[in-house]
Amino acid sequence: MSSATSEKTTPTATTAAKTATTDPAPAGTGRTGGRAGASRATAADGRIPLRSHLRHTSALVRRNLLWIRQDPESMFDAVLFPIVFTLLFVYVFGGSIGQSLGGGQEAYVQYIVPGLMAMMGMNMAMGVGTGFNQDFNTGVMDRFRSLPIGRGSVLFAKIAVEVLRMLIATAILLVVGVLVGFDITNWPGLFAAVGLAVLFGSALMWIFITLGVAMKNAQSVQAMGFLVLMPLQFGSSIFAPTQSMPGWLQTFTSVNPLSSLADAARGLMVGGPVADDLWLTVAWSVGITAVMAPVAIHKFRTKS
Fold it and tell me: Where is the composition biased (Low complexity) (predicted)?
């Protein structure tokens, strides 16, 4: 899967990136002098004030959005995944799993839509890692690291655009969900569930950014992502209740953060217990961000 924000060197993209600064790029950077350039950029990074960091981030966000406009196919995953997954699970599994919920397909729609909202964040997060890796391999990130801009600005801009894509995917999911019978009765709870999914999804992006920087190619990032993605998604309460699962798998689902997110979103949107799962999801999100964000920024600064 490739990220929607995977960059290529185009005149429009280069112009937008250069709006982040009016200073000339330091010499000795690029693929042959990347380590020396990264060291100078790292030293300069500490002298850039917060206001400049924000200006650089907004310029890079604009650059990424311009690239999406030039390459609308990069939005296919955000547009098509919610449609395909919703229709697939509702009409293939809705009847059988819905009976275990005591209401048939209609009951399963109320169950699966909040769960799929939790899944969207993880799918978008994996796309960040593959796109980031492609940017390094095509030299786009070497160009960014040669500019006197905040190193974190590049990463925060990536995450901001992916959060926007996640919100678009979530909106499409909810529209399709309503069309197949999902009943929105608690609008404040709906917005709270969306915010919780975005919080957790943005935390996961730091993990996949780290993988994107550390691994050699996008295929390796994607393979590693699926190795993590599939057990977490299917070993959770996203798609089906966990009561019928084997005891050892129920133990895993009870500590799986995706189960906490799905159950919290379900409670907020359709009713049910919320507090424990809500705070567990927030704790997971804060913990992952606190650990992985510094690691991702450090690896980005020091990658040769």
Answer: 1-29
